Amino acid sequence: MLKKVRVRGPVGRPRTRPDAVAGDKAYSSRGNRAHLRKRRIKAVVPEKKDQAANRKKKGSRGGRPVIHDADLYKERNTVERLINKLKAWRGIATRYDKTPDSYLAGLHLRASMIWLKDLTRTTW
């Protein structure tokens, strides 16, 4: 998924490397963290309890505890709410579309519907 990321700025071409990536505990694996560290991307992913317990069990050989920005992690809620709004449309939630192009078109259509609804709500 990181290959598709484009962070637009005020001028120039979009960046392909975001400053940080927020994820839930499912993405706290050593491989994911190593990939982000290699690309110099800040990982905002909390550590699973069993991973922390295994690390502590190893003592000094277990490495340092994972540090993540709790305030930045809280902003992940905004993205989660948008994903839930997208999934409210049955075609996206169930992935009935056969081709990636038609699925992406459905995502664009649903996103524009959400945007228009929010736009009309703020103009009144």
From TrEMBL:
Domain Transposase DDE: start-end pairs: 21-117
Pfam families xrefs: DDE_Tnp_1_2
Region (Disordered): 1-66
Transmembrane feature ranges: none
Superkingdom of the source species: Bacteria
Ranges of compositional bias, category Basic residues: 32-42
InterPro entries linked to this entry: Tnp_DDE_dom
Name listed for the protein in its UniProt record: Transposase DDE domain-containing protein
Organism: Streptomyces thermolineatus
